[in-house]
Here is the input.
Amino acid sequence: MPAVVIIGAQWGDEGKGKATDLIAGRIDHVVKFNGGNNAGHTVVIGNEKYALHLLPSGILTDGVTPVIANGVVIDLEVLFEEIDALSSRGIDVSKLRVSANAHVITSYHRTLDKVTERFLGKRQIGTTGRGIGPTYADKINRVGIRVQDIFDEGILRQKVEGALDLKNHLLVKIYNRRAIPVDDIVHELLSYAERLRPMVCDTSLLLHEALAEGKTVLFEGGQATMLDVDHGTYPFVTSSNSTAGGASTGSGIGPNAITRVIGIVKAYTTRVGSGPFPTELDNDEGERLRQAGAEFGTTTGRPRRCGWYDAPVARYSARINGVTDFVVTKLDVLTGLSEIPVCVAYQVDGVRFDEMPVNQSDFHHATPIYENFPGWTDDISAARKFEDLPANAQNYVRAIESMSGARISAIGVGPARDEIIAIHDLLD
Ligand code: GDP
Ligand code: IMO
Ligand code: MG
Here is the structure.
């Protein structure tokens, strides 16, 4: 009954989609347990490139049952757009199952996301504008709309009325927007009901039974540790638990079912949106990483902020998630650099911090203490064994492994499906 969790160990876009794809051929179910269509996973298979947002990346592999679990927030318009787009490219999406308890993103959540960001001005989070935060806020405030509500018009109307009551006052009186009519929302949501109905079930029970039968279940995290609402760089975070614990609460599977936690890290670091990022390179070196790594967001197209590898962040992620294995991606992007700095600790007002400072202001003021490693020039994209890598690339990987708190089990050397060096089996 292996239950394997894949999580981002930095600020997102580490290549989780590619890591999922790597093992998807050996799994039975793939579960999205947090976030929504704020995620963006690019998977390259042969000459085909797939960009997934709401559906888990494992859906691209034949025979896998994809599951959208209770911890996810679902924009139904996006769900059906993605299903249709994949179907038209020959991907079988008929097995998709959706939790009756997942919350639904509506147009008022998207509107509120945008207006609150504008209202925050300089303090804005830089959200994806997909309505993620307001939908989770409604969930916690107990005024959310769940998938199951869509199948009972009376209940749906009652809940939408309850949710819009206060929000319309806010929209009109504070944000100077038009009130949103209850009818519009109810009709929109009801329009999805018949298409949605056959997909909806008790996904916790489904996964429990799968695990009891000895099937392999992969939990595919969206976002990343440093964007987790509890453990990330709050308030510059997303609104869900994107750490490994979220796989349990976000799917209704006991934590003791989880047998493996795979943390994905880039060989350097990127971040989208606002918030602290000690190793950020706001200069030509950062631009070089952005161009070489094609660091532009899959979801919003925004240029990603780029910087060097941050070992305290990786160690923190290893601890928070219980990482058993790291997959390092994009090592190829570092090819051609004469020297590669790695952040080994921070300096805050003259004091050395070997671990992530607990105080947020300290992290905002942290300057990295770097150790430099010699680079390599040979193209590494054809390497398939660790020994195929140039000696300096091997040294770099070994060095970050020794600083990061768990073994490195695979190394990405290019975007394509087969451009990977497998060191330890990720499932066995
Ligand atoms: P996710 O959100 O964690 O799934 O990651 P994204 O898909 O948003 O961003 C990762 C990007 O890096 C994608 O465009 C991948 O195709 C690409 N990628 C993944 N692994 C590698 C790698 O080892 N080398 C290179 N050059 N690109 C990679
Ligand atoms: P994947 O799964 C990178 C960031 C946004 C913003 C903050 C809050 O592709 O790694 P939100 O819309 O979630 O309320 O925005 O979180 N963010 C991501 N950054 N990768 C992601 O997902 C992200 N999902 C959200 O840029 O700073
Ligand atoms: Mg992404």
Observations:
- The chain has a mean pLDDT of 96.
